[in-house]
Please model this.
Amino acid sequence: MASLIQQISTFFNYYNVMLLLWGISSTVLLTLIGCGAGFTFGAVIALTRTARSIWLLPLKVLFIAYVEFFRRIPFLVILFIVLFAAQVISPTISLFGIAAISICLLSTSYLSEIIRAGIESVPRPQVEAAEAMNFSRGLTIRQVVLPQAWKVILPPATSFVIMFIKDTSLVSQMGVTELMFTGKTPRQSRLLLAARLWNDPRLLFRPVLSAEPPRRLDGEETCHTSASEISTPATGKCRSCGTSAFQSRRVR
Amino acid sequence: MAFIIFWAAFVIGLFGAMGKSFGGKLTRRAVGAYVAFFTNTPAFVQVYFLFNGLPDAGILLSPFAAAVIGLTINSGAYLTEIQRAGFASVRRTELEAAEVLGMSRLQSVRYVILPHIMHTIYPPLASFFIWILLGTSMSAIIGVEELTGRAINVSTSTLRSIEVFTVVAGIYIVLTLAASVALYLVGKFCFRAKMRVI
Model:
């Protein structure tokens, strides 16, 4: 415990605070993306599922399958599936993109259920009265159903969104730097360094060879910060991307 | 694992709700603080703290124990809220009648309040059980060998990630569907609760 208290003063240095702020912004951004997509697509799904038209039946079945699928799988498993599936489709997708996609999938399914419950809570006679007054379907939804459903939707939706802000902490397992992960890095940066060295032992010699101060190894790594530019001093070209090492250093 | 967590959390929630409904000012404050703290921090962070943070204070927990304790404390807070809402739904006169009959606090909770509120709080309890079932997956990260943990192990050793995780997703769906049906039947025949499976 004493060591914990001792660490507090060293913990709040400039880099750690910046890292934490970066994590907070990432968490907020993921939440906003998830909420936006969730409410939009969730409303579409809910409206389709509550519609009475027989032509929408296949779509309804599809949506029910979708919602039940994503509501009955842990978020972690969704993350893994999206990670591996996304890497097949586009190998260069960023981890943040993967996190955003899986959060959208999750929030869409949950919010569609919440919105559907709200729409179904509106008494049937209200809709029938609107029909009798020759309201179109869109007008009925906008002026009759939604104002009444809104009160039912809002409380569970709020608590879901709060749950969801906290769910973003799981994303740290995939390597997106959000709040949870930034809390983790100062502890484990030495471990991460060890992992990098294990993958690329040439990194060990990098500070000596390139005669520049060693940079943080747990930050994002571009092509030129790896040892590749040092390994081909004769041509002066980077082995992996072909640009001149001199150029890239000037750009940096 | 989900069963252990659920019953332990149910007991915590019961006492929490009793404390919040009948306790003095101090008990109420304490329970309120507990609920506010544990429902507003991610369950994952709590488990992570128990597993990685407590060793600094000299307490070493096995991954299983850390996951169970963390998730229990977390869901205890949620269940406190659910059961407190149930307690609030019992009519004042019923409690007064129980008092007139000379029942103690515990007796009135056991014979008057619980039968009443089980009808009301059964649906949220059931959905929370499903939530715990899904929530146990995050204990895989700290190294507990449950479904997701096994899946991660198998996928790292075979490199067939998509197949493995699709199968695991299927298993989870079957598991939660079975749990939903069972809970629905129990709710229908024991507590006359109105709920549906899908």
Helices of chain B lie at 2-22, 25-40, 43-53, 63-89, 92-100, 105-135, 147-158, 161-190. The radius of gyration of chain B is 20 Å. Chain B has a mean pLDDT of 80.
